[in-house]
């Protein structure tokens, strides 16, 4: 069994493969994270997963894929790191995660604050174009749901 610290080191060394590689990045990450939840300190991997997304914003890690599913397992622990990541370097996956959070919210004020964050990302100048487009798409989707 791999310890959390070993898993974090593997994530730091991880270099994504091309889309035509025999194994996808999602499968490779699944193999790295295989033992994670056997460790009591598994939550320590959270910042490393966001760092991986930020370092490779245009890489297909699956949608939602292993990274998102792993992070969402830490309900109540990953959200603060998600918001920090969105401020540093929004990616398609972090924007997807924000949209998933919005879908789960029942408090209108909190929902509107998060929808506003989507809007801000969608009009920002200095971020990844794919993340911007994803934010714009989710923003439009959320606005339609508010009206419905």
From TrEMBL:
Record's keyword terms, sorted: Plasmid
Protein name according to UniProt: Immunity protein 30 domain-containing protein
Taxonomic source organism: Adhaeribacter radiodurans
